Amino acid sequence: MGPKNRHAGEFPPGLSRERNLVLIGYRATGKTAVGALLARKLARPFLDLDQVLEEDAGQSITALVEAKGWAEFRQREKELVARYGRARGQVLATGGGVVLDSENVEILRENGVVVWLKADPSTIRKRLSRDQGEVNQRPSLTGSGTLDEVAEVLRTRQSLYAAAAHVVIDTAGQSLSQVVEKVLDAVGKCFGGGGPGT
């Protein structure tokens, strides 16, 4: 049987209109694209916190990090999580390192259903290398290069993503629409019995 057809505004069981749907995960796991489509399907506002941060800063994340360092970026990210993570009824795509701060995780879990979009290092490297402009827009996290550092950084974050997530979706080998349906179905199954969001 194929994926169920959903009408705009139709919520899976367990996802109330008040709770946010929050996407976490490493770079190039599809948070922005999946989030935008989820928001359309659920008739909710969509916010990509990295894009909001760039708009607020008036410069790209790469330029901000080069000028002021990662600590400044993380502080700005924390302020955005506090502002938008406490709002209700949105789809939020977060930056890959949002889970490095336990207060961020607490806010996102308290007010939302947190979905970890995961992929293996090889899949992530392939996705990043498809678009050199995309690689150039993403500052290195370790100094060893955006493509070279994937496995190392992912290893250090895996347990943080796992601890933060209510739901885990593997995006490797999946189309955008398949991932979206998996998110909606998993959220419904996970919380259909009266957990978060009901």
Give your account of this protein's structure.
By secondary structure, the protein is an alpha/beta fold. The chain has a single domain, classed as P-loop containing nucleotide triphosphate hydrolases (Rossmann fold, 3-Layer(aba) Sandwich), CATH 3.40.50. The protein is built from 9 helices and 5 strands. It has helices spanning 31-42, 49-57, 61-68, 70-84, 102-111, 121-129, 132-137, 150-164, 176-191, and strands at residues 20-24, 46-48, 91-93, 112-118, 167-170. Strands 2-3-1-4-5 form a 5-stranded parallel β-sheet, with helices on both faces. Helix 1 (31-42) packs across helix 9 (176-191), helix 2 (49-57) packs across helix 4 (70-84) and helix 3 crosses helix 4. The radius of gyration is 16 Å and the shape is globular. The relative contact order is 0.21. Residues 193-198 have low confidence and may be disordered.
Q: Span between N and C termini?
A: 27 Å
Helix and strand composition category: alpha/beta
Q: Which geometry do the CA atoms define? A: globular
Number of strands: 5
The number of distinct helices, counting runs of at least 4 residues, comes to 9
Task: Name the beta content range.
Answer: 5-15%
Q: What is the mean predicted local confidence, pLDDT?
A: 85
The biggest sheet, with number of strands, parallel, antiparallel or mixed sense and barrel status, is: 5 strands, parallel
Largest sheet strand order: 2-3-1-4-5
Bin the helical content: 40-55%
